[in-house]
């Protein structure tokens, strides 16, 4: 029998506490469809996800304690995960409740699947491989009924940190998203902005940019981005949008906001999956498909460039790349990672 | 060597002293034993090393260039002796040492070369601002100048400026004048503001809520205290609070260089004050901020210093290192 002790069971990479005890997104709620086993890789660990009859999402090691077969190759029957090899049945508490080769015997107490902490929030499924040191970061608009929410992705990137740093960088808009989030011939100069570290969160003052196709309403706007870095692989912006054409300004409202909650799942040190939840409160509300069409375009434009960045592992030592004050948030992000002791996927 | 230098200084001849306005004289300095002075851009100043050991900073007026530099000095009876010497003891023909020009108050283009510009000057603070006005005019940019003074007779260039529709003279003797902060509040929020004037005026501007403006406020504090001893003017001591280590920083060294030489693991990247990687909390002392990462308002709030380029106004800085 495989040793059930949690540590040392697999050839695991060394993952520092900042990531091991953090919540990571491993799927959208939609990806966790009832009756379906979802193979997942998080930080090089093979996991299996599934949703029970009560609607509760579970994330386990993708491993049968009996002979080490992949549970994700099995199936779900009677609200139980069935191993593809000898048909051992695991219930929603991860306890083996049936060994078909000895159907009348009560399975041993140790016959359990290896569970990880699992939660659902903001249309996303989160798992923690260690013991959660924090709650899942806050996304206030999720609970605000005046906001329409749309979950987008998955988008594949190499470095999740490079993807996140790109997400918090408005100076690439005129080039990577020319004609959408910026104008290549007329890039916005970025005046100095403030970055604060408070309660373990990095946040900026508003950064103003011109966007010819600034939101899914497909109208030119002046956008004011306020960013937050919530966790090493979770970031957020709240964008204030002002319709730039004075003739149509009346169609907008001073309260118009477009928010994006960004997450990156590290598959391994140089592969990651980005999933985001957008929240918007303006009229007219775009359809889910309209929101996704735009996000799919923008993130495809991003990954085409971000995946060319070298080294793939982001340098958290600020001496290793050149920075400018317009990169202040990205630069503070790297220092923040460095100070947290994040080494996995960094150099 | 094209220039005659003494410890990085240029030798100059005081070629002319002219009356500027009541209480203000203009001094023309020409190269003493070299062909030319270094070129000048608007907002720059030079250090004047006076024979009595005083070192004073003066902004360069518009006609300054390789052929000669022009400064304006206001007599300040309550001052620390520099203006008094220039007004009483200086004689045409004297040799003086000056530094090469430095510019901490340059016109910026990072907010867009076409950003509207608001110039604010109080009293003798007109000197760098007047040079900026000329530069803006040469570039064909739009600007507005507000200039405060006690009376027209005491305002340098009041004659030339009074006829310009882009200029508003606020003369205290003529009754109520707006505060500088009111002028900024009424101006376009996109406008870049350049201000030079008395401490009270700049403090008032520094207190404005920067978040309400997309344009920035840049200030030159011409009354910054400068140590009397010329040798101490450039050197200072840095105390590292966590270890108690005291490190001298020489006139030609940066704080960063000194710490690197000592093998300290400090973060930095650009080494020229444009990135913010080397930002360190300053626990005590008065930094002389020379970076472009934060505005003066932010520096006042954040109490940090970019150690790659910034220096100390006093003899000592205590850093959170």
From TrEMBL, chain A:
The keyword Flavoprotein does not apply. GO terms for molecular function: dioxygenase activity. It holds the Pfam family Rieske. CDD domains: Rieske_RO_Alpha_N (cd03469). Keywords: 2Fe-2S, Dioxygenase, Iron, Iron-sulfur, Metal-binding, Oxidoreductase. Residues 23-127 form the Rieske domain. InterPro entries: ARHD_Rieske_2Fe_2S (IPR015881), Cholesterol_7-desaturase (IPR050584), Rieske_2Fe-2S (IPR017941), Rieske_2Fe-2S_sf (IPR036922), VanA_C_cat (IPR044043). PANTHER family: 3-KETOSTEROID-9-ALPHA-MONOOXYGENASE, OXYGENASE COMPONENT, IRON-SULFUR DOMAIN CONTAINING PROTEIN. This is Aromatic ring-hydroxylating dioxygenase subunit alpha.
From TrEMBL, chain B:
InterPro entries: 2Fe-2S_ferredoxin-like_sf (IPR036010), 2Fe-2S_ferredoxin-type (IPR001041), 2Fe2S_fd_BS (IPR006058), Beta-grasp_dom_sf (IPR012675), FAD-bd_FR_type (IPR017927), FNR_nucleotide-bd (IPR039261), MRET (IPR050415), Riboflavin_synthase-like_b-brl (IPR017938). Keywords: 2Fe-2S, Flavoprotein, Iron, Iron-sulfur, Metal-binding, Oxidoreductase. It holds the Pfam family Fer2. CDD domains: fer2, PDR_like. Residues 7-108 form the FAD-binding FR-type domain. PANTHER family: CARNITINE MONOOXYGENASE REDUCTASE SUBUNIT, NADH OXIDOREDUCTASE HCR. This is PDR/VanB family oxidoreductase. It comes from Comamonas endophytica.
């Amino acid at each position: 029998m495989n040793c059930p002790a949690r540590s040392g069971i697999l050839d695991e990479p060394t993952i520092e506490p900042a990531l091991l005890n953090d919540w990571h997104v491993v799927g959208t709620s939609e990806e966790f469809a009832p009756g379906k086993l979802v193979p997942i890789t998080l930080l090089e660990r093979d996991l299996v996800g599934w949703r029970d009859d009560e609607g509760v999402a579970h994330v386990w090691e993708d491993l049968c304690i009996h002979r080490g077969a992949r549970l994700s190759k099995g199936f779900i029957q009677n609200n139980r995960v069935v191993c593809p090899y000898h048909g051992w049945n695991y219930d929603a508490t991860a306890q083996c409740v049936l060994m078909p080769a000895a159907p009348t015997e009560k399975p041993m107490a140790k016959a359990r699947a290896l569970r990880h902490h699992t939660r659902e929030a903001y249309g996303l499924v989160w798992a923690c491989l260690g013991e959660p040191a924090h709650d899942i970061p806050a996304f206030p608009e999720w609970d605000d009924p005046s906001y329409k929410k749309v979950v987008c992705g998955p988008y594949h990137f190499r470095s999740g940190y490079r993807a996140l740093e790109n997400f918090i960088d408005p100076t690439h808009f005129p080039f990577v998203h020319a004609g959408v989030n910026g104008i290549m011939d007329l890039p916005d100069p970025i005046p100095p902005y403030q970055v604060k570290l408070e309660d373990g969160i990095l946040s900026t003052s508003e950064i103003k940019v011109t966007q010819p196709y600034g939101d899914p309403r497909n109208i030119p706007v002046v956008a004011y981005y306020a960013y937050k870095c919530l966790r090493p692989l979770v970031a957020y912006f709240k964008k204030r949008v002002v319709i730039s054409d004075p003739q149509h300004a009346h169609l907008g409202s001073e309260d118009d906001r477009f928010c994006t909650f960004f997450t990156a799942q590290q598959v391994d040190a140089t592969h990651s999956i980005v999933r985001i939840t957008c929240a918007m409160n303006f009229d007219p509300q775009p359809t889910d498909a309209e929101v996704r069409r735009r996000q799919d375009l923008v993130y495809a434009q991003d990954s085409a460039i971000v995946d060319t960045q070298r080294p793939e592992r982001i340098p958290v030592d600020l001496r290793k790349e050149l920075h400018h004050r317009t990169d202040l948030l990205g630069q503070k992000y790297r220092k923040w990672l460095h100070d947290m002791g994040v080494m996995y996927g960094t150099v | 060597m094209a220039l005659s230098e003494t410890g990085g200084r240029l030798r100059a001849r005081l070629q002319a002293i002219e009356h500027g306005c009541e209480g203000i004289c203009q001094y023309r300095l020409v190269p003493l034993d070299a062909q030319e002075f270094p070129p000048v851009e608007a907002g720059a100043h030079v250090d004047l090393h006076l024979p009595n050991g005083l070192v004073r900073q003066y902004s360069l007026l518009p006609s300054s260039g390789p052929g000669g530099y022009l400064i304006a000095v206001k007599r300040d009876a309550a001052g620390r002796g520099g203006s008094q010497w220039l007004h009483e003891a200086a004689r045409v023909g004297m040799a003086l040492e000056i530094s090469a020009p430095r510019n901490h108050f340059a016109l910026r283009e990072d907010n867009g070369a076409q950003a509207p510009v608001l110039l604010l000057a109080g009293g003798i603070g007109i000197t760098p601002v007047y040079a900026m006005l000329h530069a803006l005019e040469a570039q064909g940019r739009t600007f507005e100048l507000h200039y405060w003074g006690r009376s027209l007779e005491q305002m340098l260039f009041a004659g030339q400026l009074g006829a310009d529709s882009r200029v508003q003279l606020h003369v205290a003797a003529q009754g109520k004048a707006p505060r500088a902060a009111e002028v900024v509040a009424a101006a376009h929020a996109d406008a870049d503001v350049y201000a030079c004037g008395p401490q009270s005026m700049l403090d008032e501007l520094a207190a404005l809520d920067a978040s309400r403006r997309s344009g920035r406020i840049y200030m030159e504090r011409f009354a910054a205290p400068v140590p009397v001893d010329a040798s101490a003017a450039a050197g200072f001591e840095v105390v590292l609070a966590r270890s108690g280590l005291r490190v001298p920083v020489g006139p030609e060294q940066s704080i960063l260089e000194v710490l690197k030489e000592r093998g300290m693991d400090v973060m930095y990247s650009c080494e020229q004050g444009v990135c913010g990687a080397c930002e360190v909390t300053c626990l005590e002392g008065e930094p002389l901020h020379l970076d472009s990462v934060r505005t003066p308002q932010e520096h006042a709030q954040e109490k940090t210093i970019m150690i790659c380029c910034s220096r100390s106004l006093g003899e000592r800085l205590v850093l959170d290192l």
